[in-house]
Design brief:
By secondary structure, the chain is an alpha+beta fold. Strands 1, 2, 3, 4, 5, 6, 7, 8 and 9 form a nine-stranded antiparallel beta sheet that branches. The protein is globular and about 50 Å long. It holds the Pfam family PNPOx_N. This is Pyridoxamine 5'-phosphate oxidase family protein. InterPro entries: Pyridox_Oxase_N (IPR011576), Split_barrel_FMN-bd (IPR012349). It comes from Streptomyces kunmingensis.
Length: about 160
């Protein structure tokens, strides 16, 4: 049996979560179609900037269609022993609606430039509403770091 580390404080979890958002590149992104439609899960590269997560995918992808239809999304980073879970609302941005500087930063950060690929790609700005983070069962009770878009832990 492995020994479990002591639970982190809310402040430390927030710092660790922000560090992951700034350094991780990929997340699992989950959506569902409108009116109880079929769920869809896909790994996507992301950029964290100004409190939002940016992703991009082909406009015809089921994930993109679900995001356009509902705006509801869940993302997870990490593994099951160090997870960050985000529920958010998304806004679709066409290539003409995203600044060239942001598109450039996305391409550099993720090593993926949707502008260089055939087919129509959309960017999505995801505003986190709920952020949870935990490592082991001893952190489950305090896993909520953000609710209704507001951080619960102070710096």
């Amino acid at each position: 049996m492995t020994q479990v580390a002591p639970a982190r404080s809310a402040k430390q979890r927030k710092q660790d979560t922000l560090a992951r958002l700034e350094t991780d590149i990929d997340a699992w992104v989950a959506t569902a179609g409108p009116e109880g439609g079929r769920p869809h899960l896909m790994p996507l590269s992301f950029l964290w900037q100004d409190g939002s997560v940016y992703v991009s995918t082909r406009a015809t992808n089921p994930l993109a269609r679900n995001l356009v239809a509902t705006g509801k999304v869940q993302l997870t980073l990490g593994n099951t022993r160090d997870v960050v879970r985000i529920e958010g609302e998304s806004e679709a941005l066409g290539e003409d609606e995203i600044s060239p500087a942001l598109a450039d930063e996305f391409a550099v950060r993720t090593d993926f430039d949707p502008r260089a690929i055939d087919g129509r790609y959309l960017y999505f700005r995801i505003r986190p509403l709920l952020i949870q983070a935990w490592r082991e069962v001893n952190e489950l009770a305090g896993r909520d770091l953000m609710r209704d878009g507001a951080w619960l832990a102070t710096d």
